[in-house]
């Protein structure tokens, strides 16, 4: 088989082994990345948030040049603040990324209404007491900065729920009577209340 003759691009005859060696050498010296062909693959990520209990809008540029931006993450933390306890925590970046992924499906210009973001342990205990333990988990992901109760103006609640469930990135609760869905970055599961 070594003596099998192949014509190269210039019409010259070469052995099969020689042809394969030349092809392999070209392949190893001509590695081209996606960014070389199409430009940078870096994506800037932004979330528009409306903190319902604060009555404020936040514009969080949280990711730029393959790096999370402290200033943008801080904007998210402020939007998720527990207004009852007047406390903030660091919101889990997996939750922020989940919201961004949902945004890609509904329209990047859409604004999330944050019904409930971070909850201090005291606020969570108070809510459990007020609601008789219903709909408020003792060890809620809200306490850990890993959950949000959200809706989006102009997007049907069932559509928002279906998108979140389809992403399979954590828990999704559907609360149609209360007008929001719950998303968290805990184990994948779903439920409906009301």
Explain how this protein is built.
With 194 residues, the chain is of the alpha+beta class. It folds into two domains: 1-30, no CATH class; 47-192, Muramoyl-pentapeptide Carboxypeptidase, domain 2 (2-Layer Sandwich), CATH 3.30.1380.10. It is built from six helices and ten strands. It has helices at residues 16-29, 34-38, 70-79, 93-106, 121-130, 157-167, and strands at residues 5-7, 13-15, 45-51, 56-64, 67-68, 111-116, 147-152, 171-175, 180-184, 189-192. The strands form two sheets. Strands 5-4-3-6-7-9-8-10 form an eight-stranded mixed beta sheet. Strands 1-2 form a two-stranded antiparallel sheet. The chain is globular, with a radius of gyration of 26 Å. It starts with a strand and ends with a strand. The model is unreliable at 1-12 and 26-40 (pLDDT under 50).
How many helices does DSSP assign? 6
User: What fraction strand?
Assistant: 25-35%
- Mean pLDDT equals 85
CATH topology group of the largest domain: Muramoyl-pentapeptide Carboxypeptidase, domain 2
Widest beta sheet: strand line-up: 5-4-3-6-7-9-8-10
**Can you write the helix and strand succession as a string?**
EEHHEEEHHEHEHEEE
Describe this protein with a few key phrases:
2 domains, 10 strands, single chain, disordered N terminus, alpha+beta, two-stranded antiparallel ribbon
Quickly describe the structure.
By secondary structure, the chain is of the alpha+beta class.
What is this structure's SSE topology?
Elements: E1 5-7, E2 13-15, H1 16-29, H2 34-38, E3 45-51, E4 56-64, E5 67-68, H3 70-79, H4 93-106, E6 111-116, H5 121-130, E7 147-152, H6 157-167, E8 171-175, E9 180-184, E10 189-192
Parallel strand pairs: 3-6, 8-10
Antiparallel strand pairs: 1-2, 3-4, 4-5, 6-7, 7-9, 8-9
